[in-house]
Amino acid sequence: MSTIIAIRGVDEELYRKIKAYAALEGRTIGSIVNEALRMWLESREHPLYEKWRKIKESREKNYEWLKENYEELCAKHKGMYIAISEGKLIGVYKDFESAARAVEKLPLEEAMIIKIGEPLERKVDLGLPADIFK
Amino acid sequence: MDMWSPTIKIIVANPLKTVTKEIYVKIDTGFNGGLFLPFKVYVELGLHLFETSKVIASIATGELVELLTSRAIIVIENAEYPCMAYTSLRANRSLLGLEILSKLRVLIDGKGRKVLIEDPEA
What we know:
Distance between the termini of chain A: 27 Å
Number of strands of chain B: 9
Oligomer: heterodimer
Shape of chain A: elongated
Largest sheet of chain B: 6 strands, mixed, barrel
Order of helices and strands of chain A: HHHEEHEE
Shape of chain B: globular
Number of helices of chain A: 4
Helix content of chain A: 40-55%
Number of helices of chain B: 2
Radius of gyration of chain B: 14 Å
């Protein structure tokens, strides 16, 4: 899918050169930027980014599983806790601590512990400063 | 100009207190949550094993960001304070927010560059 993204702070001289190369090679600037971004990412392989990716993947699978099963869980186990990882249910527990102890024993990339009945998504205003991610 | 910011040293533990870490956190009365951590620290504490459901937070620019969120325990002067800890891949520093500060008496001595903390209930 093609997306328009505005990027601040691009070096004008670099941009002029890229534009010239794009014209010479009959390519779009977008395809050159994509190629450059891919090369940059391949040169990195940052372990923390890999960890982040694995956590996100596991969480996405968890939500898929929850979407299909949450209603049934609420009917059967409301007020109890579930532990879930990689889209698989680890177990149902009477309290948070029991769920946490069960999770800690397993070699997992990520796990969620949810009190059954609580909303699966919350929007919060934490008042985080604008530069916290810079 | 040398900018000073009110910072204190705390101990953070995962919810089972099986992993702990000493960190410096900036006191931020604009932050409504308990603890905001860099992703690296969050993972070192193993908090990614005790995550809650999805949390979408708005930041000061109005942008919405999905945060990883876990229960955690903060230890200040031997007193324990359970709270929620938040992070994101791009999180660049540690903040201590109102969820914890509202339980404490905090004196920021800017001139002396000191932060004095006491728990009125301890």
